[in-house]
UniProtKB/TrEMBL annotation:
Residues 4-59 form the Rhamnogalacturonase A/B/Epimerase-like pectate lyase domain. Keywords: Glycosidase, Hydrolase. Belongs to the glycosyl hydrolase 28 family. It holds the Pfam family Glyco_hydro_28. This is Glycosyl hydrolase family 28. It comes from Cohnella phaseoli. GO terms for molecular function: polygalacturonase activity. One of its GO terms (biological process) is carbohydrate metabolic process.
Length: 487
């Protein structure tokens, strides 16, 4: 077996000496021999960019720390998205392009020294109307892992901590496996994300823990191919923003609208300790379809909403969410523009416990939404607007004591073509009669069945609007409602 100990090549590991050249020499020598293992023994190794090679395993022993240099001259600034329309330049601590069979593993640590790349903000806004970052980024900052156009990538076992920006940015890569990672970034850092996957295929993520100051796992299709076929399971999350963000468009370097697509994402058996959002899906001039998210336990203290689906001149279809337990201050928002296509969305066996906090759009979100980042301020209840087809089955919503009093609907629907609500249990917030449990405005076709009105319900269902169509009510237990329906 080809094996290279970086100390043999002159690495010191005292936390002061620059060990970049020695570690790179070990990687290059191992690659020239056809590949093998580069061993990083216990110690603190200060390094700039390390260029990975084909068929290399980078093994970080317990007690080994790769520590990011804070000097700009120690980094290679790589052009990523280099074959796409809008390339950008970024440094990476571990960098690779057009590689195959690369493994980063062990039980050691990669430390990004985040605070060296940030400045403390002079003022910090309140959570109800601002995003949570408490720092501003300086002129440049490195990704911990930056890979483009690679295949057969495995990252396992190690700790990735204190990243000044994404822990990992994986672009146009196929067959990527993350397993057993411990990602510990600053909860209030600027863009201190976990992993971003741009136009990747055949990705598997399992048994990882994420503490992040932005999205823990982000999937986009802004590279040179579609994003598809992800499995994510058995992970835990503590994030100030989203556990999962799935999107087309939106990135600031994209200068004009272009079509891209994401499909076939399966997420299961995950637990969220804290977040501003669990599933955030945004289709901007693109198509997102075939997403399944099941068996989730969620607690959210940040202002936000557990489920947020939004199209902006895009398409979202076949999104199926089932078996969730949610404690948060926002349940579910699904919104699009009037001519967008949002169809075949289902929420099944989901229990929402909502403790309202003051936030910018607790009752009604503007149309169009002023900014993607305003998902933090989405309504308290289940809010649907400009949707073709959506189904709820065995969904409950219980209001708990919170920081904000008022009266509003548990489910608010506007301009929906086909709506099916089966087995809903809930009531409106507050005791006033101005808000029904379920409000429908211009819903063209709806059925409400096997539902239960909780004690304190005033009006269970209210319909209105010039485009309102027939609503079928059957097999409901509405004995606790003062009034069943009104127009």
């Amino acid at each position: 077996m080809n094996y290279r100990d970086i100390r043999t090549f002159g690495a010191v590991g005292d936390g002061m000496t620059k060990d970049t050249a020695a570690i790179q020499a070990a990687i290059d020598d191992c690659a020239q021999a056809g590949g093998g293992t580069v061993y990083i023994p216990p110690g603190k190794y200060v390094t700039g960019t390390l260029r990975l090679q084909d068929h290399i395993t980078l093994w970080l022993e317990a007690g080994a720390v790769l520590q990011a240099s804070t000097n700009r001259e120690d980094y290679d600034f790589a052009e990523v998205y280099s074959t796409c329309k809008y390339p950008v330049v970024y440094p990476g601590l571990l960098y690779g392009s057009n590689l195959k069979n690369v493994t980063i593993t062990g039980t050691g640590c990669i430390d990004g020294q985040d605070l060296a790349f940030w400045a403390t903000k002079d003022t910090i806004g309140e959570g109800w109307n601002s995003t949570p970052s408490r720092y501003d980024p300086l002129e440049w900052r490195p990704m911990l892992i930056l890979l483009e156009a690679c295949s057969n990538i495995r990252i396992s076992g190690i700790e990735l901590c204190n990243s000044p920006v994404y822990s990992g940015w994986i672009i146009d890569c196929d067959r990527v496996n993350l397993q057993g990672l411990n990602i510990l970034n600053h909860f209030y850092g600027p863009n201190s994300d976990g992993f971003h996957f741009s136009s990747c295929r055949y990705v598997h993520i399992t048994s990882c823990h994420f503490r992040t100051g932005d999205d823990s796992i982000a999937i986009d299709s802004n590279g040179c191919q579609s994003s598809c076929h992800f499995t994510i399971s058995d992970c835990t999350f503590d994030t100030s923003v989203n556990a999962f963000r799935i999107y087309t468009g939106l990135d600031p370097w994209i200068k004009e609208a272009s079509y891209s697509s994401i499909s076939d994402i399966s997420i299961s058996n995950c637990s969220v300790f804290n977040a501003a959002g669990v599933l955030n899906v945004t289709a901007e001039h693109g198509q997102i379809e075939r997403i399944s998210v099941s068996n989730m336990t969620v607690r959210m203290e940040q202002e936000g909403t557990a489920i947020f689906l939004m199209s902006n001149y895009g398409t979202i279809r076949h999104v199926h969410l089932n078996h969730w337990l949610v404690h948060s201050n926002g349940a579910c928002t699904v919104i699009g523009l009037p001519d967008d296509c949002i169809e075949e969305v289902s929420l099944t066996h989901i229990q929402f416990e909502i403790a309202p906090k003051k936030k910018l759009y607790g009752l009604e979100i503007p149309e169009p939404i002023p900014s993607y980042a305003h998902h933090h301020f989405a309504p308290y209840g289940i809010y649907l607007r400009n949707v073709q087809t959506i189904r709820m089955d065995q969904v409950s919503l219980v209001w708990q004591d919170g920081e904000y009093d008022g009266s509003w609907s548990a489910i608010s629907c506007k301009r929906i073509k086909r709506l099916q609500i089966r087995g809903f249990t809930g009531r409106q917030a507050g005791n006033g009669d101005q808000a029904p449990a379920i409000a429908m405005v211009d819903v063209e076709s709806a059925s409400v069945s096997n539902c239960t009105a909780l004690p304190g319900t005033t009006v269970f269902l209210r319909t209105s609007g010039s485009e309102a169509g027939e609503v079928q009510l059957f097999d409901n237990d509405l004995r606790e409602a003062r009034e069943v329906s009104s127009i």
